[in-house]
Amino acid sequence: MGRLQGKIAVITGAADGIGHAITAAMASEGAHVFASDIDDQKGQAFVAELTAKGLAADYVHCDVAVEDDIRKLVDTAVAKGGRLDVLVNNAAIAIGGMPIHTMTDAQWHRLIEVNLTSVFRGCKFALPHMIHQRSGSIINMASAQGHIGLDGWTAYAGAKGAVLSMTRQMAVEFGPHNVRINSISPGTIATTMNDQVIAEQGDHIARAWVKMHPIGRIGKPAEIAEAAVYLASDAAGFTTGTDLRVDGGLTAAPRFVPDLV
Ligand SMILES: NC(=O)c1ccc[n+]([C@@H]2O[C@H](COP(=O)([O-])OP(=O)(O)OC[C@H]3O[C@@H](n4cnc5c(N)ncnc54)[C@H](O)[C@@H]3O)[C@@H](O)[C@H]2O)c1
Fold first, then answer.
1. Taking Cα atoms as reference points, which of 201, 214, 229 lies closest to residue 29?
2. In a domain, 259, yes or no
3. What is the tens place of the pLDDT at every residue in 60-113?
């Protein structure tokens, strides 16, 4: 029996990268996954792959910058699945690599809307169901950038820092309802998001990332998915308000990175 057998799980930003890996892992552990994204073509093709393997999966369009999309995503999962056990607030965008004083207000607002307000909205719509059931696990995708500094990423780090403190706050508030709320802080993971950063900043950044991680490499999406499966599972029944750093040691110690100076 899978570690998430019979659970109803909603994942945002599921068509690619970390969200894709989490969705695949949760489905193969027995969850009925409701995968959502703005890239409908990729999302639908992914869900078709899962169902072809006999796994329980649905695709729902959801732009996390649109309140009504998140409401519909949660409503669809509850209507089809009868309950909501897991919400993974994963979708985010990378706007950065620039000194904060050169960031426009439009860039700031877009980043906060997609990376932070989305977490508020996901929780807002999921919590009533989880409180009613007296069970549930919310997993918010934070980042190593919520813990340490890196030139050019102040706004992104601000959003992720807020995700970390909101996670702790909600864990305290909803623990009495048996709703667990945790976050994951990945180090640098090989995804499209980082391919985009390399394209914008150059190959030297990829070499620097490897040196920044004491373990000597960047991470794989499946390594974050494993942490998400644990936090979603009953094995984590006493785990709430925590941040699981899956970062190859990135945040454990300051590192001298010659390529960055
Ligand atoms: N990749 C990393 O190194 C890294 C490190 C730390 C934290 N994270 C976090 O992990 C999460 C996933 O990152 P990733 O690297 O897999 O990103 P990615 O860019 O590879 O994939 C993101 C997915 O989200 C979707 N998406 C983008 N905007 C959306 C929106 N408005 N609504 C719904 N879906 C949207 C994209 O279509 C894509 O499928 C993010 O929260 C990110 O901040 C990533």
1. 229
2. no
3. 999 999 999 999 999 999 999 999 999 999 999 999 989 999 999 999 999 999
Residues 43, 37: Cα–Cα separation, whole Å: 6
Cα dist from 194 to 2, 167, 187, whole Å: 31, 25, 11
Ligand 1, atom nearest to 186 Cα: 6
Which helix (H) or strand (E) segment is 32 a member of? Answer: strand 32-37
What strands lie across the sheet with 86-89, from one edge to the other?
57-61, 32-37, 8-11, 86-89, 136-141, 179-186, 243-246
Q: Domain total for the chain?
A: 1
Q: Give which of 261, 226, 188 is closest to 26, Cα–Cα.
A: 226
Is residue 60 assigned to a domain? yes
- Whichever domain contains 94, its CATH number is 3.40.50.720
| Mutation probe of ligand 1 site: the residue of 11, 16, 18, 209 with most atoms within 8 A of C-beta | 18
pTM for this prediction: 0.97
